[in-house]
Design goal:
It is built from ten helices and eight strands. It has a single domain (about 5-210, about 240-300), classed as NAD(P)-binding Rossmann-like Domain (Rossmann fold). It has helices at about 25-35, 50-60, 75-85, 115-135, 170-195, 210-220, 225-235, 240-245, 245-250, 285-300, and strands spanning about 15-20, 40-45, 65-70, 95, 140-145, 200-205, 260-265, 270-275. The two termini are about 35 Å apart. It has an eight-stranded mixed beta sheet, sandwiched between helices.
Length: about 300
């Protein structure tokens, strides 16, 4: 794994990938590099203008790339269902659950869920469940969910998943990222129990310069915080290209273990992909099962093929 970079990505010809949030940041880089290695890539983005623009930019960078845009709003469950119902391929080798929001002012999704929990976790939970039949029919498929080292700031509160008692933007973000890891843990466990060769893994980008850091302060009108984040991105963060490497490794490297968590090698901050530390609560079987049951109830998406 030492020194692994995008040049080590195996040939992806004949494979199909869905990348959520592929219009910018590490999502765009992930989509671009998978397409560069021959995959057909579906850019799943909320904004049609930004998604279509990303597709044009990607083809300009990688002539001949097979890319297609499809609208997906993870904060709107009917949109998730529409995306899954219109999925145009008969196979799905890579589902990259990348899109996310960070440290936003309090708000709710179209379905009434706290925005960060609803978008970062519930939207991807529903998407994965709706695409599960195609994943199960595709040999050696993988589901890679992007979490964050910030998960260590807070465990989920199963009795207050929507942060209704008290909302703190960073705690809510951390809980959504813990939820990502608990989802991967439970998905991997259920896939193994059913003898499936689908691999569920997680990754994080370390500190990568994207618009994720500035969106929250900008929405809240916190100009000083926005400037602080811009300075951090410029002088301390690694590039989005480097930040995408853990995701690309988890998606394509041989022998990636189920329920693994890949991040940058240097203190989880920057560097080539390596196994990443994770809080013990993200491997709690009881917590992951309870979150799974709550997520099925909240989204109305049941993983019937993986019933335990």
């Amino acid at each position: 794994m030492s020194g692994w970079n995008e040049k080590a990505i195996p040939d992806q010809s004949g494979r199909v990938a869905v990348v959520t949030g592929a219009n910018s940041g590490i999502g765009y880089v992930t989509a671009r590099e998978l397409a560069r290695r021959g995959a057909r890539v579906l850019l799943a983005c909320r904004s049609e203008a930004r998604g279509a623009g990303a597709g044009e930019r990607l083809v300009a960078e990688v002539p001949g790339a097979e890319v297609q845009f499809a609208r997906l709003d993870l904060g709107d469950l009917p949109s998730v269902r529409e995306f899954a119902a219109a999925y145009p391929y008969d196979r799905l080798d890579l589902l990259i659950n990348n899109a996310g929001v960070m440290a936003l002012p309090y708000g709710t999704t179209a379905d009434g869920f706290e925005t960060q929990f609803g978008t970062n976790h519930l939207g991807h939970f529903a998407l994965t469940g709706l695409l599960l039949p195609t994943l199960l029919e595709t040999p050696a498929a993988r589901v890679v969910t992007v979490s964050s080292t910030a998960h260590a700031l807070a465990n989920i509160d199963i009795d207050d998943l929507n942060s209704e008692r008290r909302y703190r933007r960073w705690a809510a973000y951390a809980r959504s990222k813990t939820a990502n890891l608990l989802f991967v843990h439970e998905l991997a466990r259920r896939l193994a129990a059913h003898g499936s060769d689908v691999v569920a893994a997680a990754a994080h980008p370390g500190y990568a310069a994207t618009n994720l850091q500035t969106t929250g302060p900008k929405m809240a009108g916190r100009k000083a915080a926005e400037r602080f984040m811009r300075v951090g991105n410029r002088f301390f963060a690694q590039s989005a290209d480097a930040g995408a490497l853990p995701t690309l490794y988890a998606a394509t490297a041989p022998d990636v273990p189920p329920d693994s968590f890949t991040g940058p090698s240097l203190a989880g901050w920057r560097g080539s992909p390596a196994p990443s530390w994770r809080a013990t609560w993200t491997r709690d079987d009881r917590a992951s099962a309870r979150l799974w049951a709550a997520s099925e109830e909240l989204t109305g998406v049941a993983y019937d093929a993986l019933k335990v």
